[in-house]
Amino acid sequence: MSALLEVKNLSVDYITLNGAVRAVDDVSFSIEEEQSMGLAGESGCGKSTIAYSLMRLHRPPALIADGSIKLGGRDIIKMGEEELRQFRWDQISMVFQSAMNCLNPVVKLEKQFFEIYKNHGITKNRQEARARAEKLIEIVGIPKERLNDYPHQFSGGMRQRAVIAMALALKPKLLIMDEPTTALDTVVQREILQRVYELKKELKFSILFITHDLSLMMEFCDNVSIMYAGKIVEQAPAQTILKNPQHPYSYGLKNSFPSLHGDIGYMEGIPGSPLNMSRIPRGCRFQDRCFRAQDICFKEVPPRQQRGNDFYDCHNPMGTLTGSRN
Amino acid sequence: MDRQIVFSIKNVTMDFQISGKTFFSKKRTLRALNNVSFDLYKGESLAVVGESGCGKSTLCRIAMRFYTPSRGEMTYNGENVHKFKGNPLRNYRQKVQMIFQDPFSSLNPLHSIYYHLKRPLQLYHGYKGIELKAKMNEALEMVGLVPPEEQGIKNPHQLSGGQKQRAFLARILAIGADVIFADEPTSMLDVSIRLGVLNLMNKLKREMGKSFLYITHDIATARYFSDRIIVLYSGHMVEWGDVDKVVKHPVHPYTKLLISAAPDPERETLAKLEVRDDVEKEVTMWTPESRGCPFRNRCPVAESRCADDFPEAVEVKPDQFVRCIHAKEWKTENSAASEKPERNQPVG
Ligand SMILES: Nc1ncnc2c1ncn2[C@@H]1O[C@H](COP(=O)(O)OP(=O)(O)OP(=O)(O)O)[C@@H](O)[C@H]1O
Ligand SMILES: Nc1ncnc2c1ncn2[C@@H]1O[C@H](COP(=O)(O)OP(=O)(O)OP(=O)(O)O)[C@@H](O)[C@H]1O
Ligand code: SF4
Ligand code: SF4
Ligand SMILES: [Mg+2]
Ligand SMILES: [Mg+2]
Question: What span, in angstroms and rounded, lies between the C-alpha atoms of A94 and A74?
């Protein structure tokens, strides 16, 4: 086992008029080579903030307050601008939330690929760029003739696939996908993920997959990190999160998805709404919404229970009594 | 069981004029709905599922009388909606309401939640004074916005997305609607709070006998909340009936595709989709001149005769209807095999 990406004690602040808000708080995780890791949690919990930090694309008012991010042993936080420019897209690339709007609608797809190759010193030759682009675009299931078309002539799903092809243009070691398919239909969404899944096997990159759709993540990822209010509260293999989650929040998230085939009973979801990040309570951040909260949860920050790479932070974890499937 | 039909749509077809391929070419006609019919019973939820652009919202807009269908008719409690004028029309506008996808745009940001409830309670029911106050609080309690005195004075921006949808449902209750068209009411909400809103709609359905047309592209929640389901493809009803039968044993190739594409955590790896890989998977535009089965360019089991006509409906099982050339074969196969009893218990 060798870790490709190692994030240690990462904290990211947003500087606002009312002072700093810590959107990501002391987060550590790692991703192995050829592994796919899922990052799930409610809106506003800090998922995109982490993704931007890994790319060092975060802009003011965001500020990395602490921690290290190492990819292949090199600390991204310490890199200078030039080093960063080389490294970005080449080593890590990212498909953004609503990425299909990232393509320039009035520039032909072929040209957009050419720009990437040119800017990263791969080739200045139009023909060679075209050949590379053709190969990639066919892998994501778009006929190569369509490189001559403008993105506005594509459907949303095709645009999204084109963006994924571009993100893979420089054969990065890590592909970050931030809610790559939430704006799309189920069928199109599945087609895209299937392509990525096959590509990953072929090109051997690692994936950080961000979504709030836990059920999709379970199928797609080897490991899952569950994030709540700026912290990763549980990390485990996808099957463990599915069958035997320890943190009550993971349990609640998992139970927010009605089953497609099993019996249907009454399901709760999670009561209340996400934590206001400028008012962090003492003790556990999930206390107000937790059905297992005890006195201690309101007083003390829950300790981390670590088993190998897996962990959870909770005073009163689910234990084994929740081994049931929904 | 004696079921009362509150709303129905018969053979509704909706054509839109859209611009031609180039500026100079003549206008084209897009057929967004083709011969759609269904009944909505009192106290039931009927789900409509299908991919983007298949005509789901158009259906809602027709019911809300934003559009007049090109063909077909709509009835409310047995009476032709398009003939309504004066009081019956006013009554229809009161009793049939819609809840939208975007909770942020559906409430007036300048007014308190109380204000949103007060107007309809005065206007439609003539409530005043203490009684008015009591009715407002009752509606808020019903939708779980408690304590009502505290929530009622808030402005929409002080509520979360899920709370806004609840407030909007409270308004629908205040208006006194009995048929609710819900166009993707939870798709913009966080997953963790979606169920809360669905459970609320379920409560309104069971305790107050409200009827819902639930539009969604999430089959799992359709199964959770609805009794029956319609699968729409390019404006055509391709399969419909009892939600459990359709979701557990889909017959139409498109329904199968839709269900195999839905996320299912119990599957351990990504399942392979049943689509033809050799065609461009874009939905072709349906026009009044189009013939045959609309799904044929993506269908893995299409035959040449699929280009001739859109097959008639076959009841493959009691309360499960399919329009596909293979439906008949499937039916014979199915009736030969002994059938297990189906679960059909209501949610909750
Ligand atoms: N530019 C900004 N200024 C101040 N606060 C911000 C800014 N961008 C994000 N935040 C705050 O940081 C927190 C984390 O935001 P982030 O975008 O990382 O969430 P997310 O998990 O990606 O959510 P979503 O699922 O909605 O995309 C949120 O509470 C958000 O309000
Ligand atoms: N006013 C209009 N003029 C022209 N075409 C229209 C109009 N309204 C809808 N359409 C077309 O009718 C078809 C059905 O649209 P509709 O909005 O009903 O789809 P939908 O199923 O609700 O999709 P989504 O899941 O994306 O909301 C689409 O092809 C759309 O472009
Ligand atoms: S620490 Fe307490 S409040 Fe927090 S998740 Fe665990 S049981 Fe719930
Ligand atoms: S009628 Fe033909 S094209 Fe249509 S779904 Fe059936 S087999 Fe496929
Ligand atoms: Mg985000
Ligand atoms: Mg719609």
Answer: 19
pTM, 2 dp: 0.86
**What string of pLDDT tens digits covers the 326 residues of chain A?**
578 999 999 999 998 887 888 999 999 999 999 999 999 998 889 999 999 999 988 878 888 889 999 998 899 999 998 888 888 888 999 988 766 667 888 889 999 999 988 888 888 999 999 999 998 888 787 888 889 888 888 877 788 888 888 888 888 999 999 987 766 778 878 888 888 888 898 889 999 999 888 888 888 899 999 999 999 999 999 999 988 999 999 999 988 888 888 888 888 888 887 888 878 899 999 999 999 999 999 999 999 999 988 999 999 999 865 443 33
Helix (H) or strand (E) holding A10: strand A3-16
| One-character DSSP codes across A205-270 | -EEEEEES-HHHHHHH-SEEEEEETTEEEEEEEHHHHHH---SHHHHHHHTTS--SSS--------
Residue among B266, B174, B183 at smallest CA distance from B220: B266
The crossing angle, in degrees rounded to 10, of helices A156-167 and A109-119 is: 20
Q: Do B265 and A256 touch (CB under 8 A)?
A: no
Selected for mutation to probe chain B from A185, A191, A326 (highest B CB count within 10 Å) is A185
Nearest CA in chain A to B145: A272
CA A129, chain centre distance (Å): 29
